[in-house]
Amino acid sequence: MQRWGYWTTAEKPPPHWVWQPQTPRAAAVAPYFFGRCCPELRTQSGGPVLVLRLGAFDLEGALRENLVEELMEPWIFMVEQTFQLCREVAFEKKRLVKLACIVDIEGVSFTWLQHLSVLQQFAKAINRHYPEMAQTLTVIRAPHIFTWLWEVAAPLLLEEMTLKKVAILGHDFREGLAAHAGVAAAELPSFLGGGGEEELVPDCPPGCTTRRPERRRTRRSQRIRRPASRPAGLCHRDFCFSPAGLVDNYKE
User: Exposed, middle or buried by CB within 10 Å (0-12, 13-18, 19+), for 78?
Assistant: First the structure.
């Protein structure tokens, strides 16, 4: 905790941990982390809000540079920071207080399915050590195909009790977010259309591999023809989603 922040005794919000990397290594890794606890952002019941910007997480780059274990440290700091804030607010209000988690998945590609084991490591850290801490989990800016994808991946990542708290919303998420999580859209970080600070949850840093490179135009004769027997569905990079299931290693 002391490598990634410091404890403040400010009255508003109640005493809590503040995200501010304290070592050169932590400062170097921090821009590549994908989430923040927002102490000033609260639900209608007073609970703190956790914002995860998965589209800004360079998962493939983290694997390539062996940074997954190092990113587990800020992950634990963020969750513990939120847990301690829930505790302080609960003492103040004299009742149980839980957090609301908002997961922005705009920019997440289907290649993430190759790395579900990595995502499971982050999920297990919460399921094992911080059970029942979330009141709601709201996925926003989700494409239509994500609903099907969620049915496949969610049971591998979350406990059954947590799954019951999940709502999946598209790009028009303001009313749904307020109804499900009790979070006013006007108070969200600016990248979500609110008035909060965007740097709370940074964008994909320079050089990351999350964003798809622009395709180079090729002549029709140079394009690789897809086999006529491939399953009908939506193709994206190395995957083909179809009613028949997930077909791996299908390359264009």
Answer: buried
pLDDT at 214 over 50: no
Q: What are phi and psi of 179, to 5 degrees?
A: -75, -40
From CA 86, how far away is CA 16, in angstroms rounded? 9
User: Alpha-carbon distance 46 to 49, whole Å?
Assistant: 9
CA atoms 155, 157, 162, 164: torsion sign? negative
Distance CA 85, CA 48 (A): 7
How do beta strands 16-19 and 5-8 pair?
A: antiparallel
Task: Answer yes or no: is pLDDT of 229 > 50.
Answer: no
194: pLDDT strictly greater than 90: no
- Statement: residue 171 has pLDDT above 50: yes
Residue 158's contacts (CB-CB under 8 Å, 6 or more residues apart) are: 123, 127, 137, 166
- Tokens linked to 67: 């940074």
* Amino acid found at 5: G
pLDDT, mean of residues 75-96: 92
Distance (Å, whole) CA 233 – CA 240: 6
Phi first, then psi: give them for residue 149, nearest 5 degrees: -60, -40
- Cβ atoms 236, 228 nearer than 8 A: no
Q: How many CB atoms lie within 10 A of CB 133?
A: 17
Instruction: Report which residue type is found at 42.
Output: R
Residue 220: partners with Cβ closer than 8 Å, 6 or more residues away = none
Q: Which residues pair with 103 in a beta bridge?
A: 52, 139
Residue 218 has pLDDT above 50, yes or no: no
The mean per-residue pLDDT over the stretch 6-27 comes to 84
Return the half-sphere exposure (C-beta side, CA atoms, 13 A cut-off) of residue 158.
17
C-beta of residue 34 within 8 angstroms of C-beta of residue 57: yes
